[in-house]
Amino acid sequence: MLNAIWLGLVLIAVVYAAFAGTMPAVTKAGFESAETAVNYVIKLTGFMIFMLGVMRVASDGGLLAAIARLLAPILRRLFPDVPPDHPAMGAMVMNMASNMLGLGNAATPFGLKAMAELNRLNPHPGVATDAMVLFLVINATAIHIMPPTGTMAVRAAAGSASPAAIWVPTLIATMCAMTVGVLTVYLLRGRTRYAAQPLPATEAAAAAAVAPDPSLPDAQLPTAVVAVSPVRNALAAAIGLALLAAVVWEIAKPWPGVPWAARTRLDVAKEIADQWLIALLIAGLLLVGLRGGVRIYDAMVAGAREGLDVVVRIVPYLVVILVAVGMFRASGALDLIIGAVDPITSAIGFPAAALPMALLRPLSGSGAFAVMAEILEAHGPDSFVGMLASTLQGSTETTFYVLTLYFGSVGVREIRHTLAACLIGDLAGFAGATLACHLFFS
Predict the structure, then answer these.
(1) Could you count the other beta carbons within 10 Å of the beta carbon of residue 442?
(2) What are the pLDDT digits (tens) for 357-402?
(3) Structural domain span for residue 424
(4) 313 phi/psi in degrees, rounded to 5
(5) How far apart, in whole angstroms, are the C-alpha atoms of residue 88 and residue 73?
(6) Which residues contact 261 (CB under 8 A, 6 or more apart)?
(7) d(Cα 204, Cα 153) in Å, to the nearest integer?
(8) Which of 87, 196, 225, 388 would you label with 324, given CA atoms 20 to 30 Å apart?
(9) Could you give the number of structural domains in the chain?
């Protein structure tokens, strides 16, 4: 589908430009968009590498294990059909903890391991079990408690005065997506249309022939607590308390020329989010590493190498999509479409200029990332459309990629109500992103 979308953008742009007299603009946009894409990559590389290094420090310091232990009791209730001591449970816990921290590279191997182990409990090979469906929906609509590093890096590269302003709206959007997605699973689970029915013998045999990859990690539920030195613990606590005191003072101190009564909680929250949140996050994650006895510099370098790999992977997507969208916009075809649907979308508070982002997000994460960069370039990173596009990027995962990767790894062909629940969760995430952006940025 992504192939058809990309080809359609380019061909429609050229054909429309031929009749509209905008061919010179289309040609110019092709060259300029490619140059813009490379410039974006150069600007976002440093911040993305640095933040992934900081996340590696916190993960090595025990943050991943702590969140995994916190999630374990919840998942035992969500997945009653999976024995608590089954390897699938440990893999699912580690996968979801990694997703919550934004550690996508770490989440995928654990997710594949979880699917392989869940498939061992599957009475109907090739047919998704209730546990598989719920696990996939949670993955496709995962809550991210960490800031969207890549999105913030693009916003900073585009000249945003507050790259981190979309962190809280993104968190709200992911919470909406996951809540509605999980509820939809339970609402559809008992319907006859989505009942688990065995596949024909030949298809079931083909599905059963898909063996789990023996190289997948052995994901066990973390039980060991990180050994904490009293000195490191006291030092981390003292620094943390000092930062907390600074935040309290920032909230309580009077603003020059602004009466105390005129200040609102939303004003204070916006100020903290705009100017303090990222610095406090970096300090907090490093303190986790300090407390856990991590060799912080070495861990930073190891995480930075992973960040560089991520940047290299997104370069082709960014260039290819940005050129296609730039040509489409320069031809005038996009303005024609936006003008037609804007009265409808604006009536519900969703600007039509952000529609390409919403349409592409479930199909391609990298493609949507590139479209977001193009929207920021065209409308400005701190415009309402720019804020909404940035929030949409982090509101859900790439639904079709998640379903194809995980179900394909175990040969599942009948996915039952998984796609319906994921897409409804995506819509809820988009709605949550729109409402949150109106609350924070209107």
Answers:
(1) 8
(2) 887 788 777 778 888 888 898 889 999 999 999 999 888 888 887 8
(3) 43-226+293-315+352-441
(4) -65, -35
(5) 14
(6) none
(7) 46
(8) 388
(9) 1
